[in-house]
Design a protein that fits this description.
By secondary structure, this protein is mostly helical. The chain has 10 helices and no strands.
Length: 206
Amino acid sequence: MQQPIIQALRHHGLSGGLVYLNPTEPFNLYLEVGFVAGLFVASPFVFYQLWLFIAPGLYRKEKRYVLPFLVSTVALFLAGGLFGYKMVYPASLDFLIAYGQRFQPMITIGEYTRLFLTIIVGLGVIFEMPILVFFLALMRVITARWMWRNLRYSILAIFVLAAIVTPTTDILNMCLFAAPMVGLYGISIGVAWLANPGHARRANAL
């Protein structure tokens, strides 16, 4: 977890690492890292329990999606966390360190961990968008045609959301958050169509 900040500091000619101001911070760090690791490792079981909660409200033919649901939710959650760790988090840290280069950084464990959790877990949840859209389309709440017709408004909403959740104020990091969300929205349109192609054809006929 410390590698991104160490690399960002070295990239700008700075040395050092994380510090703590409270004696309990190192202990809390291990608990929080264990929580995140456990969340990703236990994600198949967590999503299976979620499926068991949803399944009673589905028809028999719709319950056949259990295996694709488990595989896709776990894969998307892990992909979101990996994307955050490899792309978004290093870029955010690099921008923040460069912006404050006139000052001597003293980055505490607590603040760093909160930022790390926000990005990694947050992107893991955001990557679940196609799964949410699938069930909304299955329940006839939304359709692929409706999503396509509102594409530009959805892209605007995505960039507004990215501007809110991104930890920095620069356009690059906002785009790093928004780009996968836009891509996931495009995938979700296809997912919505696959969830109910007959309804989509009837809507187009009208």
